[in-house]
Design brief:
Length: 243
C-alpha cells in the first residue's frame, strides 16, 4: 500500500515494546466454530456487527483524508486443519516495510468492489490465482494510523505450490494454523508511549517455516493482528444469536 502523509504517532520497533499480558482468560475456539458452514453463517450475519477493534485510525486521524483498501484473509484448506496465508513485506517499502500482512492494497476505481481488489492484489503480490479462491464475505472495515480504511475479505483457498512472491513487495510467504491464531492465549498485549500518546497493540508471534524454507519467528502485530482478533470475536459469537 502507498502511504499518504501520516501525523499519527507510529511504532517503528514493535518487538521492543514490553508485553503487558496475554488474553489467556478468553476461550480458544473449537474446530466446529471455524468449520466452513460456521464461518459462512457468521460472515452472512457480519454486516451489522461491530468489531471490538475498529483501528487506531478512528481515534488518531480525525477528519484527515483516508484511502479505501482491501485485504484477503486467505483460509487455506489443509488436511491437518485450515491455515491462514500471510506475507512478510520487503524492507525497502515506504509503508509497512518488513511487516507481516495479508495480501492486499488500495481499492482502485477499476476494481469495483473490495473483494475484486483483494483478489487482484493477492494475484499480483503472491501469484494466487483467483480461480483457487472462494470468497465467503467481508468483515467490517478497520482504520489504520496510516490513513487506510481496510476491508478484510475472508475466503477459502485451495492449496497450491505455484505461489510466487512479487520481489518488489513481498519478501516471503508463510502459513499459520488457524487453531493457533484463534486461541487468545497466543495474543499478547503491548503498551507504549509514542510522542506523548499511549498506544496499545496485539502481537501473535509464530515460529514456523516460510515458502522459501526458512524456519524462524514471524512477528504478527498491528493491524494484521487486530483483524485476526476481530475474526476471532466474529467466530466466537453464538450462531443462534447471529443468524
Amino acid at each position: 500500500m502507498d502511504n499518504p502523509t501520516v501525523r499519527a504517532p507510529l511504532i517503528t520497533d514493535p518487538q521492543s515494546v514490553p508485553v503487558i499480558g496475554t488474553d489467556a482468560h478468553l476461550p480458544a475456539l473449537s474446530p466446529a466454530q471455524w468449520s466452513e458452514s460456521a464461518i459462512a453463517a457468521q460472515m452472512a450475519a457480519a454486516a451489522d456487527w461491530q468489531p471490538p477493534l475498529g483501528g487506531d485510525g478512528g481515534m488518531l486521524l480525525g477528519d484527515r483524508p483516508v484511502r479505501a483498501a482491501a485485504v484477503l484473509v486467505p483460509l487455506v484448506r489443509r488436511p491437518e486443519g485450515p491455515t491462514v496465508l500471510l506475507t512478510q513485506r520487503t524492507a525497502h517499502l515506504r509503508a509497512h516495510a518488513g511487516q507481516v500482512s495479508f495480501p492486499g492494497g488500495r481499492i482502485e476505481a477499476e476494481d469495483g468492489s473490495a473483494a475484486a481488489a483483494a483478489l487482484r492484489e493477492a494475484h499480483e503480490e503472491v501469484g494466487l490465482a483467483p480461480h483457487r479462491v472462494e470468497v465467503v464475505g467481508e468483515m467490517p472495515a478497520y482504520r489504520t494510523v496510516t490513513a487506510f480504511v481496510v476491508t478484510p475479505v475472508v475466503a477459502w483457498v485451495q492449496p497450491t505450490d505455484r505461489l510466487q512472491p512479487d520481489p518488489h513487495e513481498v519478501q516471503d510467504i508463510f502459513e499459520v494454523p488457524l487453531d493457533f491464531l484463534m486461541n487468545p492465549a497466543h495474543h499478547r498485549r503491548h503498551r507504549v508511549v509514542v510522542q506523548d500518546a499511549t498506544r496499545q497493540f496485539l502481537s501473535m508471534p509464530w515460529q514456523g517455516r516460510s515458502l522459501s524454507g526458512a524456519e524462524r519467528e514471524f512477528f504478527i502485530w498491528g493491524a494484521t493482528a487486530a483483524m485476526l482478533r476481530n475474526f476471532y470475536h466474529l467466530l466466537a459469537r453464538p450462531l443462534s444469536s447471529s443468524a
